[in-house]
Specification:
- By secondary structure, this protein is of the alpha/beta class.
- 49% of the residues lie in helices and 11% in strands.
- The chain is built from 11 helices and 5 strands, in the order H-E-H-E-H-H-H-H-H-E-H-E-H-H-E-H.
- The protein has helices spanning 13-22, 37-48, 59-64, 72-79, 82-86, 91-97, 106-115, 131-134, 151-161, 174-199, 212-223; strands spanning 26-31, 51-54, 122-125, 144-149, 202-206.
- A 5-stranded parallel β-sheet has the order 2-3-1-4-5, with helices on both faces.
- The radius of gyration is 17 Å and the shape is globular.
- The chain starts with 12 loop residues before the first helix and ends with a helix.
- The relative contact order is 0.21.
Length: 225
């Protein structure tokens, strides 16, 4: 772990302002599973000449860059088998104890972003971008949006990708595992909606009637691109 200021730790006002200034070139796209974060981020990056940083792509690396003391929920999760992770526990417990939902490893995302050159700008996307962790990093509040999929949109997106059963099939009870996962993700999206509203951040509900063009247009407008 580097000595970079952590966004979830107390900071002096000058340090917080300096960190925001260093990340002023970053656009943030968070949200629930299946909301279209990756698709929209790739589209905007290509259209506006931005660098793309996908947080899902570095989860394995980040898992290896943290210690059990720094990430106790990750450590517990890694010790579980697939049934313990997805079948035996309630969706509520899965939500409350999932390491990325707890913000573990978020500082590593910040470390990575600080190492990137400021030109071109960066669009970072992924469900790990929790509103309460991102807000202190925003020099411009409008440069962060959260995509909030309805349950119907999420299921359609997963079915379209062919990934609906990817995790569930690795358990002894795939149907229960899938129900647990879908409910956990529904509750996570609901939590994001409440948190973005309470923090005055921009959330966009993504339903089955919304086209990719519509969503890209709304995110582009939110970012002022």
């Amino acid at each position: 772990m580097s000595g970079v200021i952590r966004p979830d730790e107390p900071e002096a006002p000058a340090d917080a302002a300096a960190l925001r200034a260093r990340l002023a070139h970053v656009y943030w796209v968070g949200g629930g599973t299946g909301a279209g974060k990756s698709t929209i981020a790739r589209r905007l990056a290509a259209r506006h000449g931005l660098r793309l940083y996908a947080t899902d792509d570095v989860m394995g690396e980040h898992s290896g860059r943290t210690t059990p003391a720094e990430s106790p929920f990750l450590s517990e999760f890694m010790a579980m088998d697939m049934d313990e992770r997805w079948v035996n526990r309630s969706p509520e417990t899965m939500l409350e104890t999932f390491h990325w939902f707890r913000g573990e490893g978020f500082g590593l995302i910040v470390d990575d972003l600080l190492r990137l050159p400021k030109n071109p700008g960066v669009i970072v996307e992924g469900f790990r971008l929790l509103p309460h962790l991102v807000k202190p990093l925003l020099a411009v509040p409008g440069r962060a949006v959260w995509l909030l999929p309805t349950p119907g949109f999420r299921r359609a997106a997963l079915d379209g990708r062919g990934s609906t059963w990817t995790i569930a099939r690795k358990t002894r009870d795939p149907e229960r595992a899938l129900r647990n996962l879908l409910e956990r993700d529904r509750m996570f999206t609901e939590r994001l909606a409440v948190e973005t509203e309470s923090l005055g951040l921009h959330g966009i509900e993504v339903g089955t009637a919304m086209t990719e063009d519509d969503l890209a247009g709304r995110v582009t407008a939110a970012f002022g691109l």
